[in-house]
## 1
Amino acid sequence: MGKFVFVQIYVDNVVVGAIAYGETYRGFLNPGRHVLSALATPRPKWWERPPTIVDVRSGRIYTFTAMGNGAGNLILWNDENMMPPRVGVFRRPAGTAAW
């Protein structure tokens, strides 16, 4: 990502915030299944927002990193995973996300 790129953060298809390069977004989610996604702005090359499915549990903290997936899309990667995805959409296992 370039230094003039901002990342819009979506939860259940609603923009909940935007962060600049190197910044952190913190938010709260109700327990249950949620769909997270991200979009690089202001002029995205690709408009797709591959989903990250998260089954949020009460009392848990979930952490994600916005990164490219090798196919031109920006995804939210869970730092608990061993290796970052490089191609295609990467679906999160239930209960293994941090926000």
Note: Residues 38 and 46 are 11 Å apart (CA to CA).
## 2
Amino acid sequence: RLEDQPVTAQGPAPLQGMTFVITGTLPSMSREAATALIQQYGGKVTGSVSKNTTYLVVGDKPGANKLTAAQRLGVPMLDEAGLRQLIGESGGKADAGSNTGNTPSQLSMSL
């Protein structure tokens, strides 16, 4: 689990100026660990989706209200692997075939 692995930021903060909202249960880390990771790399975590939200990080059993708000506002959605790609970590969860370029894996959901 990620909580057990110390992570240190090197160089510029890749998430500087970005605002994230987390919904659902992430596969390999708690919400608290995800929040700490985002903050460590310069990002901000809030509790609700707004026009200022850069990404919605979506895990298992996400909140319908957050998904609806993100879709309505056009906020891009990431899974945990996408968040790790944004930071620059490999995380070991992404398929080698799906990792094309530097674009984080984004989710497309319909309600």
Note: The first strand starts at residue 19 and ends at 23.
